[in-house]
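Following up on my earlier message about magnesium ion. Here are the inputs again, as you asked, copied directly from the submission form:
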Amino acid sequence: MRQAAEILRRGGLVAFPTETVYGLGARAEDDAAVRRIYRVKGRPSDNPLIVHVDGPQALARITRRPTALARRLIAAFWPGPLTLVMERAPGTLRAASGGLKTIAVRCPAHPVALQLIRALGEPIAAPSANISGRPSPTTAAHVDRDLHGRIPLILDGGSCQRGLESAIVDVRGSRPKLLRHGVLTPAEITRAAGMPLALPGPDSPSVPGARHRHYAPSCRVTLVSTSDIRRGGLAKLSALGSGLLHRTSFGGPTPAFRRRVSGGVDAYARSLFAALRDAEKAGIRVLFVETVSDRGIGRAVMDRLRRAAAP
Ligand code: TXA
Ligand code: MG
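Thanks, got it. Here's what our run produced:
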C-alpha cells in the first residue's frame, strides 16, 4: 500500500480493486499522470474519467456545492456503486474531466480502494483497468492480461463483489438523470431520490464513453433468447469453435466452451465480464450469450451485452 501511494505521488499508475470492477488509478490532480491513463488504455481523449474519493468531505475542493439531490443520494449510497456528475470547481481536475465543466465522482465500497485513497491523501482518477473497448476486469489477472508491462503495480483484492460498473447519475438539477445503467437499479435510485428518474433514451448516449464500441472480447458475441436455449435449437453450436454462456439449462450439442451461471440475474451480472474473458481464452470464434429481461439489474447487463455484440 505504501509503495502504491508512492507510485501515485510520483505520477505513476496503479491498478486497484473496487466493489464494481478494477480501476486504473492516477493522482486526479496530476494532469500528466491522468494523460498517461489515456495512453496506456488507448482511450479516446473525449471520454472523461471518474474521480474516486474516500467520502463526501472530499467534494469541497473539487466540486461546487452539492445540490440537495446529490446530498440525498450520497447519504443513501456512498460508499457504493453510484457515480455522481456534478459541477466541477474551476481550476481543478482539468485532464480527468476531459475539459468538461462537470466531473464524475464516486466513493468506492472496497477497503483496498479506500485505503489507497487515504494513503495518497487525495482523490484518484480511475477508469476501468482494461484496454479500451475490452470487457472490464473483475480480477487482478484480467488487469494483468490487458496491461502487463505497461503499469508498475496491481493491487490484488480478489474477485470484484458486484462485477459490473457503477450507475452514473447527473445530480446538477432538482431531478436525477440516469446517464449510465449500473449495478444500482433505476428503482433503487428512484426510491432514495424520492422522485422519478429521467432515463437515457436507447439512441441518445448521454455519457461520452457510450459512443464507443465496448466490452467486446476477441471472439464474436451473438445474443440468443431464453426460448432459443429451451428449445435446444442452437444447431450452430456444434459448429467448430463456438461457445455458450447461459442461465437456463440446455440440452443441445456440447460446444467447445460452455459456462452456465445458475442463480439470479445478480450472479449473471457478477460473472459476465469474467465469462467473456474466459471464452476468449478458450480460443473460440463465436460466443452465444443468453439474454436476460431488461428489468432491474438486467437492464445494465443487457446494456453491456448489446454493446459487446455490436458489429
Ligand atoms: O464502477 C465504475 O464506475 C468503475 C470503477 C473503476 O469505479 N469505473 C468506470 O470507469 O467504469 P470508466 O472510465 O470505464 O467509465 C466512466 C464513464 C465513461 O462512460 C465516461 O464517459 C463517463 O463515465 N463520464 C466521466 N465523466 C463524465 C462527465 N463529467 N459527464 C458524463 N459522463 C462522464
Ligand atoms: Mg470502462
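One observation from looking it over: The longest strand covers residues 82-87. Hope that helps, and feel free to reply on this thread.
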